[in-house]
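Late entry, written up from scratch paper. The run itself happened at the end of the previous shift, but nothing got recorded in the book at the time, so transcribing now.
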Amino acid sequence: MKTIIAIFALTALSFSVYQTKMISAYVNQVDGIYIFIDSKPVQEYTVLGEVKSAINDDYEGYRDDLINKAKKKFQGTTAIIIHPPHQNLPTAEAIKFKD
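Output as recorded:
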């Protein structure tokens, strides 16, 4: 019986070890909001909505604008997924991570 419990415990521990991959990253936070740029988080999330910025020539400017708009428009925003401007203005999805 003790052997079975020990094997189960060791098996459970082996599944809880996170293995980094080439796609793993530490995500920066600005003003308490996680920032994803042309990427998506691995953790499950809910899309709260989309915000647009009128600033398109300065990354820090439109990033901060998108953060402020997401926080004001969507209560509970924990992160944004920024879609950088290509031929139009930058947009971002405001998201909330699931528990």
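The chain has two helices and five strands.
(Scratch paper discarded after transcription.)
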